[in-house]
Write a structure and sequence with these properties.
The complex is a heterotrimer. By secondary structure, chain A is of the alpha/beta class. In chain A, 32% of the residues lie in helices and 21% in strands. Chain A is built from 12 helices and 15 strands. Chain A has a 7-stranded parallel β-sheet with strand order 11-10-9-12-13-14-15, with helices on both faces. In chain A, strands 4-5-6-8-7 form a 5-stranded mixed beta barrel. In chain A, strands 2-1-3 form a 3-stranded antiparallel β-sheet, with helices on one face. In chain A, helix 4 packs across helix 10, helix 6 packs parallel to helix 8 and helix 8 packs parallel to helix 9. Chain B has a single domain, classed as Putative cyclase (Glucose Oxidase, domain 1). Chain B is 20% helix and 26% strand. In chain B, the strands form 4 sheets. Chain B has a 9-stranded mixed β-sheet. In chain B, helix 3 crosses helix 4 and helix 4 runs parallel beside helix 5. The radius of gyration of chain B is 19 Å and the shape is globular. In chain C, the strands form 2 sheets. In chain C, strands 3-2-4-7-1-8-11-10-9 form a 9-stranded mixed β-sheet, sandwiched between helices. Chain C starts with 14 loop residues before the first strand and ends with a strand. Chain C is α/β, with parallel strands linked by helices. Chain C is globular, with a radius of gyration of 19 Å. In chain C, helix 7 packs across helix 11. The chains are: A alpha/beta, B alpha/beta, C alpha/beta. Chains in contact: A-B, A-C. Chains A and B meet through helix 6 and helix 7 of A and strand 2 and strand 8 of B.
Chain lengths: 413, 274, 395
């Protein structure tokens, strides 16, 4: 079993905050495909399409038959540890801060041997479940986990480096007026976050769920209007230094395409929330989070954005809403690179249509706020960069990966 | 214009300037500070919305502009302390001079009376100003003359910063305002130039349930009169005797605009203290 | 994969190996690889009694010549060879260089080949070297604790110990014996005696590897000449005949973890071509980046069977005067590892032993020697292996 992580003590004001360092960041292009799989929470290895050999490390040709036709596919993740070491000395600045570090050689049931991070609960001859996770540099690394869940498993210090677990961390949920914001706040509270700041815009307007929100343990209501730069800056001045996880739940939804009357005003409102809102949050909170990426148990860990899956391709019945989502998706890609030096993750949670007032005419299946909240917590706890919530989002993602142009036609029918 | 008339005018302005300088005339600011958190009118979500005031810094003696500080601002025409032109309402849509750019400038300065119903408004958040209330006021303070701004004092501006200012509940906003008889009386029988309030609109919070809905908007603008909303410091004005300057921005075909409303009041010492 | 029928691996005819040069090592030096290699070649030509222009073949191994290769070095040093080789094989460099130079000389493509390995070691150059070592290491090894070679060898040491019952004491015995040898070798970086207790109590580097299981990176160069027997005799040089040499790369790719090297594929041929057996070897130079690799070589080079390495170690004395003299200059573990020169250290040492030019304790009656090389942890294992048997010719 793993010793549970203790709540971090209050910060010693005389101590310098540990500067963030990254584990080695360079990778070959073939390895980046492994990272892309891990980003979506998939454990996949290269298969030779000609002879079926499974190869690792990632490469450009099959080591059995020289075919260049290699494809990443999900594989059996079972394996056995056949050697282990605890590294005490390294010239690498990231690992130096974290010595000693346990790694092992794992013989995978599907063939190759893999050098992997070892969870504290596994040792030589343990059966393990191999995972590919993104490390602080944003690249996939293998980590061998116990084949069966062990006590406090997620508290393993090496594992925690590969996640953005909300446990003992302080979170900001940006829109407490929405059902999604309220569900996310409740889920973070349950997942062990130590404080959940919840932003409320225009507090003079009552909203459904107000009382229940305030009653969630660890929730603190804060004034925040992400369409108002001053409001965002002021809140950041207050809690920016202790925002470890930022979950942007704000979303401005309106039906209508470009030819709808007055679409410029509505589109502007949509962009102001969905795009510039995210930008204001990033500009205010991003630099501080990036500087606190290695600040102990409650280091800054992740910015999560919940956005419609139509970021990937436009659905004309929500035409400019989709456009704002696409812009948002693009900004998240930018932010991912900008926060990387701090080891702070940017997690995108793509959703299908919600069951809400604006989408009463959209046929099911629809997504419930509680589903999104669970997905947010899972993304944080497992460090998954791209999550697709609900059947519609999964379907659109699959079609997108297959051929974005075909998807455009399908959504445009 | 005769030389005598010009000389008289010069004397009047000279007296005004002397009064402002040496005492006797006080300038009172009836305007709230424009800030992003200033509430705006709430409409059902499927309607177009009133954009609150927003400000983005362009430069502040930094790399974006080393020697100067300035901002870009954006807002609805109806944000903050603001002016409603006749064209704002459907009843005034066909009037000439109905938009802010075409209002004759002499109409932007005029006398004002203050109808103090702050006690009644404190007692009843849905207080409705009626013709009877106005007649009673006239009995004490004299008849309201044509061309006057009628300012409806409720002390509602003191709720700014609290939920009470909009006072929104599931059945909508709750704040005082006039009923249709009162507006008909002021517009038709007294010939006022406009009606000003401390609340977010010239109508009461529940004004959509009156007949016609939003009677202040409907009747004022349908007759070419103006509205002023979100006024401050009405408690610093005398019941009669003030002159107000209410000049909206000259926006082409604009329906209204945020503005600075200034009042000149006889300085009896009262206006100085807040 | 044995040689194809009809094209047997042929022995070497009249190839002489001579003039063992070791430029004394320095822990850190501001000098470049070019500087160290020039010093080695300078001593090589002087001691051979020839001019630099007489070198018509050159084989270079170095990690730190970048952006140059052997080509740039020819202009830099003013050499005009008609045969040029660049061997980026780390610990296997010397054996492979010798193997190729011997064929060149045999065929007449070159007459006098200088084989040289040398590297700079500036502060922080080890870290920089690691970061650009190989694609698989970059992708699949360094992101895991970044132990460098220590981390990789720790894993296979751990596996070997669990599988064959080797103990830290066994590895310690190898290290302690090599330190004793090093104390007789004036150029060794390590000058203090090492006890088994010191070895066992050393700080951990990457379990089960501790401080004295690791080599000390340093700067230096090593070199030797490959020529014909006739030319060696004309120049009046003590020399050794090359009897046999093997090399192999990426052997046993399906082994889940490395417990044997490529020698195991080619060892029978090594002795058959040389016409000697393991019992005929008087002095051995194993590649000793870590003691577990030394133990593997005892097995894979036929001195004992697979899995008997620990017992073999327990029953032998590895000092120059012992029952199995090996790494008589102290090996890299005690003399230091000057980059690619580390691959040359053992071969140069046994060349001195069998030509009676030893700087360290002379092994009595040493005539036939085996030098082995091993190199390039590309991902999880060393890929290059090689071995050569030399026989000294007494004038």
């Amino acid at each position: 079993m793993t010793t549970p992580i203790a709540p971090p003590p209050r910060k010693d004001p005389q101590k310098v905050t540990r500067p963030p360092e990254l584990p080695p960041i360079q990778r070959s292009r073939a390895s980046l495909e492994l990272s892309a799989m891990a980003a979506r929470g998939v454990f996949a290895l290269q298969h030779c399409e000609l002879c079926g050999t499974i190869a690792y490390p990632p490469r450009d040709a099959c080591p059995k038959c020289l075919s260049i036709n290699l494809r990443f596919r999900p594989v059996d993740d079972g394996g056995e540890v056949i050697a282990e070491t605890r590294v005490h000395t390294t010239p690498d600045l990231y690992f130096r801060q974290r010595m000693p570090w346990r790694v092992g050689t794992v013989r995978l049931d599907c063939g190759p041997s893999v050098v992997a991070h070892l969870h504290g609960d596994v040792e030589v001859l343990s059966r393990v479940r191999m995972t590919a996770k993104l490390d602080k540099s944003g690249n996939a690394v293998m980590m061998a986990l116990p084949a069966q869940e062990t006590e406090n498993m997620a508290d393993d210090v090496q594992y925690r480096e590969l996640t953005a677990s909300p446990k003992h961390r302080r979170a900001l949920v940006t829109d407490g007026r929405s059902a999604v914001g309220q569900a996310v706040a409740a889920a973070l509270s349950k997942a062990g976050a130590s404080i959940i700041f919840v932003g409320i815009a225009e507090p003079w307007k009552p909203f459904p769920g107000e009382k229940e929100l305030a009653a969630i343990p660890k929730v603190e209501i804060m004034p925040l209007d992400i369409t108002d730069t001053t409001s965002v800056t002021e809140l950041c001045g207050e809690i920016g230094g202790k925002t470890d996880i930022l979950v942007n739940t704000a979303d401005y939804v309106r039906p209508g395409g470009l030819l709808a009357p007055g679409s410029v005003v509505t589109a502007r409102d949509a962009f102001d929330v969905n795009v510039f809102g995210l930008q204001r949050l990033a500009q205010a909170f991003g630099p501080g989070m990036r500087a606190r990426g290695a600040d102990g148990t409650n280091s800054a860990a992740a910015l999560v954005d919940i956005l419609p899956v139509y970021a990937l391709a436009n659905i004309p019945s929500f035409g400019f809403y989709s456009a704002s989502a696409a812009a948002r998706h693009s900004l998240l890609q930018c932010l991912r690179a900008e926060l990387r030096p701090g080891g702070v993750r940017v997690l995108s949670v793509f959703t299908g249509p919600l069951e809400d007032d604006w989408r009463q005419h959209v046929p099911p299946p629809k997504v419930q706020p509680s589903q999104i909240a669970r997905a947010v917590v899972t993304a944080l706890e497992e460090g998954i960069e791209e999550t697709f919530v609900g059947d519609v989002a999964k379907d659109v993602a699959e079609r997108f990966l297959d051929d974005p142009k075909v998807l455009e036609r399908e959504l445009g029918l | 214009m005769t030389d005598a008339a010009i000389a008289k005018g010069a004397d009047l302005l000279g007296a005004l300037v002397a009064g402002m300088r040496d005492g006797g005339v006080e300038v009172v600011d009836l305007t709230h500070t424009l800030s992003p958190d200033f509430p705006v009118m709430v409409l059902p979500p499927e309607f177009g919305q009133c954009q609150p005031f927003r400000i983005e810094e362009v430069s502040r003696y930094d790399s974006r502009g080393p020697g100067w500080y300035w901002n870009n601002i954006s807002m609805s025409e109806h944000a903050g302390t603001h002016f409603d032109a006749p064209a704002h309402w459907i009843s005034g849509r066909n009037l000439t001079d109905g938009t802010v750019d075409s209002i004759p400038p002499e109409k932007l300065i005029g006398p004002a009376v203050v109808l103090d119903f702050s006690k009644e408004s404190a007692a009843d958040e849905d207080f409705l100003l009626t013709r009877a209330h106005i007649e009673e006021w006239e009995a004490r303070h004299g008849r309201i003359e044509a061309g006057t701004w009628v300012l409806f004092r409720t002390d509602w501006s003191k709720h700014l910063g609290t939920a009470k200012y909009l006072n929104l509940r599931e059945d909508g906003a709750h704040s005082p305002g006039p009923d249709s008889d009162a507006m008909e009386f002021l517009v038709k029988e007294r010939g006022i130039i406009g009606f000003g309030t401390e609340t977010v609109g010239t109508d009461s919070g529940q004004g959509s349930h009156l007949s016609p809905p939003y009677p202040a908007h409907y009747i004022l603008h349908g007759n070419g009169r103006y509205g002023l909303q979100c006024l401050a410091s009405l408690d610093r004005l005398p019941p009669r005797g003030a002159v107000i300057f209410a000049a909206p921005l000259k926006i082409r075909h604009g329906s209204g605009s945020p503005l600075r409303v200034l009042a000149l009041v006889p300085a009896d010492g009262k206006a100085r203290k807040s | 994969m044995a040689p194809r029928p009809g094209n047997p691996h042929r022995g070497y005819r009249d190839v002489a190996v001579a003039v063992p040069v070791s430029v004394p090592y320095v822990r850190y030096s501001i000098e470049s690889a070019h500087w160290w290699i020039a010093r080695a070649l300078s001593e090589l030509t002087q001691r051979a009694g020839i001019q630099p222009a007489d070198l018509d073949g050159l084989s270079v191994s170095s990690f730190t010549l970048v952006p140059d290769t052997a080509v740039g070095l020819t202009q830099h040093l003013g050499l005009t060879p008609r045969w040029l080789d660049n061997i980026p094989m780390g610990g296997a460099s010397a054996v492979v260089a010798l193997r190729r130079a011997a064929r060149a000389v045999e065929a007449g493509d070159a007459s006098i080949v200088a084989c040289v390995g040398g590297d700079a070691n500036q502060v922080d150059s080890f870290r920089k070297l690691l970061s650009s070592f190989s694609r698989f290491a970059q992708d699949a090894s360094y992101p895991y604790g970044y132990g460098g070679p220590n981390g990789s060898f720790a894993l296979l040491t751990d596996h070997y110990m669990r599988t064959y019952g080797a103990t830290r004491e066994d590895f310690g015995k190898i290290c302690v014996a090599q330190r004793k040898n090093a104390l007789t070798y004036p150029h060794a970086i390590m000058k203090k005696p090492l006890t088994l207790e010191d070895y066992l109590n050393a700080r951990p580097i990457a379990d089960p590897i501790h401080l004295f299981d690791c080599v000390m990176p340093c700067a230096g160069a090593e070199a030797f000449l490959v020529t014909t027997v006739d030319i060696a005799q004309d120049l009046g040089l003590p020399y050794a005949n090359l009897l046999s040499a093997i090399e192999r790369h990426n052997a046993f790719p399906d082994d889940p973890i490395q417990y044997r090297g490529g020698w195991a594929m080619d060892v029978d041929e090594l002795y058959a071509i040389a016409g000697v057996s393991p019992d005929d070897i008087d002095v051995v130079a194993t590649y000793d980046d870590y003691p577990v690799i030394v133990m593997m070589q005892f097995e894979d080079l036929g001195f004992c069977k697979k899995g008997e390495g620990p017992d073999f170690v327990r029953s032998h004395d590895f000092t120059a005067y012992g029952s199995f003299p090996q790494n008589t200059s102290g090996g890299q573990l005690s003399a230091g590892q000057a980059g690619a020169a580390g691959g040359y250290l053992g071969l140069v040492e046994v060349l001195r032993q069998v030509t009676r030019q030893s700087l360290s304790a002379q092994v009595a009656g040493a005539r036939t020697a085996l030098a082995s090389g091993f190199g390039m942890i590309n991902y999880d294992r060393g890929l290059c292996s090689g071995a050569a048997i030399l026989q000294g010719v007494q004038a």
